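>> received
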Amino acid sequence: MPSAEPAYFDPLSTTDLTNTICERFERERTRPLINELPFFEGSGLYAIYCIAEGSDLYDPLIPFDIPVYVGKSHSHSSATGKPAKTSHPLWLRVGQHRKSIGEVESLRLEQFGIRILRTPDVHCDLGENGLRVGFQPVWNSELTGFGSNEQGSTTRSSARSRWDTVHPGRRRSFGAEPHDPEALRTAVRQRVARQVASCHLLPWRAHMLGPSSRSC
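>> returned
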């Protein structure tokens, strides 16, 4: 029996805004990471995808358009409110990730692509949270450390990250190695299986037309 209460709708609710941003983001084309991005200014959202076979860990994600990593870059510091030190923080951030992947032995740049959407900082935060919570990308959840920056002697004395344990080769020095690489690979495979099984439940994909919705 239908509820006697009238429906409630807030077009500016954080949930609806997040779904709108995520849907718009997924309509952007995926650019091959092997190609250096043309220069552009601004901040916003980005996600890295496995787009070509060659990795037993990430190949199952390809047909479902599920990212391995989601990130953002702000135009202003969230702590101080001051403008970023550069007019092109998103372009720089993507370049750093491209370098990281290119340095490791177990990955090839041509296996990966990137999707980018420039947005205001407030929408960037909503979109990143929606994509991270919705997809739970493996490099954000299981293999943490991919997006970390080297900080001189602090990084050299810190433990090897989970990402660097499974994908060694970045030109950095590390301290202790506390992680079991085989256990991490098992955790990644389990996470990927859950992602593939649940991606069709993402609220913004239910309204999309195109490869993403068809795959899931």
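>> The CA atoms of residues 106 and 166 lie 8 Å apart.
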